[in-house]
Amino acid sequence: QVQLVESGGGLVQPGGSLRLSCVASGRILDINVMGWYRQAPEKKRELVAVITNGGHTNYGGSVQGRFTISRDNAKVYLQMDNLKPEDTALYYCNYRDIRGYWGQGTQVTVSS
Hints:
This protein is mainly beta. It has strands at residues 2-7, 10-12, 18-26, 33-39, 46-52, 57-59, 67-72, 75-80, 89-96, 100-102, 106-110.
């Protein structure tokens, strides 16, 4: 089993920044992918960004150039800059090897 604990969500004005953190614990395998997905009300869960244990990254199209994902072993971070109202969603941390795990989610609200 792998446990994921997220932190860093909150309320921010348009154009502002937030940094999300996620710590994975438990049976972590050497080869894995960690990342972030989000789900807004009445919408499907979508990719925000993922990063492999080797540092390779992939971003969803709507956040490219504004968000930056990074990791330090079993910790993954999401730096979100120039936030827009459409970024408002519940953000979920994800860990994946031959298994997949989700965190509980942290709310990000972008509003003036």
